[in-house]
Amino acid sequence: MSNLKRFRPSVESICSYAHCVESPSSIPCAHCSLTFCLHHLVEHQTAIDNEHKRLITTIENYRTRLKTIEFRDNRYELFQQLNEWKTSMNENVEKIKNEIDVTYEQCDQEFHGIKETILNNIDNEEMNLKEILINLEQSLHTLESSCVELIISKTNPTIRLMKPNLNSSGFSDLQNKVQPDLDRFLSTSEVIFSLDYDPNDTTLFATSSQYLIIYKLSRSIFELYDNNGQHLSDINYDHTHYGDLNQITWSSYVNGFLLATSKQLLKLNCTTKRIARYIDIGFGFFKDICAGGESILLVHNLGTSLGDVIEHYSNNQMIQRCWKSDLYPNESNMKDIMEIFRIRMSSHLVAIDALFTDKILVCDILHAMKCLFRIDTKHCSILSMSPIYDTKQWVLFVIDEQNESSQRRMLVINAQESDTQRRMREIKCSNLLPTNICFFGSKHFILTRTENDDEENMLFECRKMHNTF
Predict the structure, then answer these.
(1) By the 8 A CB rule, do 357 and 344 touch?
(2) Does domain 178-464 have CATH number 2.120.10.30?
(3) Does residue 83 contact residue 76 with C-beta atoms inside 8 Å?
(4) CB under 8 Å to 367, separation ≥6 — which residues?
(5) Are 204 and 245 in contact (CB under 8 A)?
(6) What angle do CA 260, 264, 265 make, to 5 degrees?
(7) Which residues pair with 260 in a beta bridge?
(8) Residue 81: pLDDT above 60?
(9) 268: which of 56, 101, 257, 439 fits an S-S bond (Cβ 3.0–4.6 Å)?
(10) pTM above 0.90, yes or no
(11) First-to-last CA distance in the chain?
């Protein structure tokens, strides 16, 4: 007896056709998971046959086209584009040549005017010999290295002409140049005022000639003080809208404090007490910032693949992007090892704290971020790095990791020192146990320090120097 069962339409399912009003009996399609009544099954099968024929026809058409196609010869169009680019570049080169002549004449005239001013100041009876020597040495160094330069981008066909910033060292006002007596300025200083200080709450602070600004993390506010310690105002900071605050610096060029955040660059106006996006630079993940004169330097994180880059802006125009590979041009592996942690500007020089290299790099922003020299900081954990006005010097507070008691030391980097062995030297901390310093005004500085080796008792002091020359 046969085991085959006679096929019977199902009476439990309904037709998959949306508007079917036929009998509820249905038959499953052999090609898909749908079910249909007998009438719509025939229509469904016809549609499947037509689709199958269409696919076969299309495949055959593509096969025929594939056999006949040839590699496209677009050399004429490419040569035409290249010729247009060449013409444009030649015009640009001729334009730059004319700019070089004009710029040279302007700079040469400015150069000789400044040189005459310096020579006249040498005979100034109101200045002592030490002042004259220091000013003359600084002036000679800057003038001898001043020239008009070209910055030719490696990544795109652009050429930029850079003028020397002959006014950056203050040649027109040599008598007002502040030069602290670094060996005695701490021990002879006096406290002008002090503020409550919790390093976990007061995460950032910065100064100008008139103002001290402190960021309080717990309340998301800036506290604004004058240089006498008088509290002027509290300014709210919208953390969600503006992004994480990474660094603060004063810029005389923008006449305000610049705030580098994880989303954008902001400006805090001390007069209006308002914060707004600094539109000339705008959005980005800015990890650090420093400024001097017309220049603004930013550590800009461009994402996982590109990493950090130092961007130099002058008069709100980007002058250069300095990649990590530019800082170590002859050591290609360093770009994968180092991290740009801190940048601090003094005059036209910038000190770069490069993590994982045990080095601080001193570069010249007037010479396309050329690295002038590197300072070895091996065995030292750097707590802070601060410029000493525009003297091309920086103060470092470090912890000596070779010392069993983790001794705290104060070091000074002097970019004007010709003796390479003396470019970094130690000066005494006078038992003040400082962790950070920030110079402002003409004779004032902010000092954060611990009291009596007690790491929990921290002091925030504004001090006045009595020894400058």
Answers:
(1) no
(2) yes
(3) no
(4) 145, 149
(5) yes
(6) 50
(7) 247, 265
(8) yes
(9) 257
(10) no
(11) 121
CA distance 32 to 410: 80
Task: Give the integer Cα–Cα distance in Å for 63 and 39.
Answer: 37
Report the chain's mean pLDDT, rounded to a whole number: 83
C-alpha 192/C-alpha 226 separation (Å) is 12
- C-beta neighbour count of 118 within 10 angstroms: 18
As given in the structure block, the two tokens for residue 155 are 């990544």
- Pick the residue with more confidence: 18 or 60? 60
* Range 383-408 average pLDDT: 87
Q: What is the pLDDT of residues 166-189, one digit of tens each?
A: 554 443 444 345 567 888 888 888
Burial of 371 (0-12, 13-18, 19+ CB in 10 A): middle
The type of residue at 440 is F
Residue recorded with tokens 């994880």 = 262
Cα separations in angstroms, 220 against 225, 238, 245, 287? 16, 7, 10, 19
Distances (CA, A) of 153 to 156, 317, 322, 348, 363: 6, 15, 10, 21, 18
Pair 394, 374: CB distance under 8 Å: no
Task: State the Cα–Cα distance between residues 172 and 169, nearest whole angstrom.
Answer: 9
Q: Is 363 helix (H, G, I), strand (E, B) or coil?
A: strand
Backbone phi, psi, residue 59, to 5°? -60, -45
Which strand (E) or helix (H) includes residue 111? helix 75-122
Question: Per-residue pLDDT tens for 138-172?
Answer: 778 778 777 887 766 554 555 666 666 555 444 34
CA distance 334 to 324: 8
Measure the CA–CA gap between 449 and 461, rounded to whole angstroms.
8
Could you tell me which residues come within 8 angstroms of residue 286 by beta carbon, excluding any fewer than 6 positions away? 246, 247, 260, 261, 262, 264, 265, 298, 299, 300, 301
Per-residue buried b or exposed e for 451-462, using 16+ beta carbons within 10 Å of the residue's own CB: eeeeeeebbbbb
Which amino acid is it at 218? S
What letter represents residue 33's amino acid?
S
375-385 CB burial, b ≥16 within 10 A, e <16:
bebeebebbbb
* pLDDT digits 0-9 by tens, 203-258: 899 998 889 999 999 999 999 998 888 999 999 999 899 999 999 999 988 999 99
Q: In what order do the strands lie in the sheet with 285-292?
A: 285-292, 295-301, 308-314, 317-323
